[in-house]
Design a protein that fits this description.
It contains 7 helices and 8 strands; from the N terminus they run αββαββααββαββαα. By secondary structure, it is an alpha+beta fold. The strands form 2 sheets. A 4-stranded antiparallel sheet has the order 1-2-4-3, with helices on one face. A 4-stranded antiparallel sheet has the order 5-6-8-7. GO terms for molecular function: endonuclease activity.
Amino acid sequence: MYDYYIVGFLYNKGYVDLIRGAVRVQCQDHDILEYIKQVLGKGSIHGNILRIYDKDIADKVSYYRRLDISAIPPEEFCNFVRGYFDAHGCVYVRQDKYAQVTMTLRRDFAYYIQNILIFNGIESIVKPLKSSFQLTVSKRVAIEKFKAFIYRDSVCRMESKHSRLFSV
């Protein structure tokens, strides 16, 4: 599994049972579940849940969920961040003209993602919450750069977030 969109999407999302060799992912976007199923080569979708019963796939997913982000090739950062954003991000649109992008993350991960964004010229802030951290992109120029960054060469994306982000 070298699809870094899926690695980002599954990072801290879903359920992995290594003893039974099971993976379960819930998502409202059926196309995302179909894409993950196609790339991983197995699984069944019922409602909005993808279930995969395969020990090798469960081991791979577990490995990639623990992956040191610094091991991701720089050319794949856009795919990884897009996957994580689709799984854990929000787009807030106010008065049909102002957008704000947020992602909830662990502390170390929040600053690592912020560094990726800074490296790509995208200004963001990180602020602590009760048990996690929130990364926010809110300036209009930064939002435009964020859109260009994460949707560059995109094969898979969550349409609802894409359309909200591009509605402003």
